[in-house]
Design goal:
Blueprint (H helix, E strand, L loop, with lengths): L4 H6 L1 E6 L5 E6 L14 H8 L2 H12 L4 E12 L7 E6 L2 H11 L5 E11 L5 E13 L11
């Protein structure tokens, strides 16, 4: 994933996945490639860093359960609280309850699941610089449909 162009050029790096894809740690490195006129991290880079990871986590979890799903980020709202003048760190985590809730919804009549998550992005000093509200969308894919996800 580090070579995916939006991440590579945005200086976004996946630090590690937690066991069984229950979470991950992402770092946005502040560099000449992603700073704005105020010498802080460009907002588009910050958005890119919070975009795919809940979808990827869910896709990986359900792929290991042999469930064919399609995952997307459905919506996001970002609040910038402090200038991102250092690297940013983002921790994504899914609880067992999150996964059970999604699985029950996917196995239900509609075969889809939508849930919102709050993401905090902290700087090197541990201060929260950004809060993002993201909404993940998952739908079950039948055996006759083509899967689009493939993380």
């Amino acid at each position: 994933m580090r070579l995916f162009p939006p991440f590579l050029f945005g200086r976004i790096s996946l630090q590690h996945f937690e066991k069984d894809f229950r979470g991950c740690l992402v770092k946005v490195n502040r560099s000449l490639l992603n700073i704005n006129m105020n010498r802080t991290i460009f907002g588009g880079t910050i958005f890119s860093a919070c975009d795919p990871f809940y979808a990827i986590l869910y896709w990986q979890i359900f792929a290991r359960k042999k469930m064919r799903v399609q995952t997307w980020l459905k919506s996001a709202h970002i609040r910038y609280l402090k200038p991102a003048d250092t690297d940013l760190f983002i921790r994504f985590h899914l609880s067992e309850e999150d996964i059970s809730e999604a699985e029950a919804a996917l196995n239900g009549d509609k075969g889809k699941f939508i849930k919102s998550y709050t993401i905090e992005m902290t700087n090197k000093r541990g201060e929260v610089c950004v809060i993002a509200e993201t909404e993940v969308y998952i739908r079950r894919v039948s055996s006759s449909q083509k899967e689009l996800s493939g993380f």
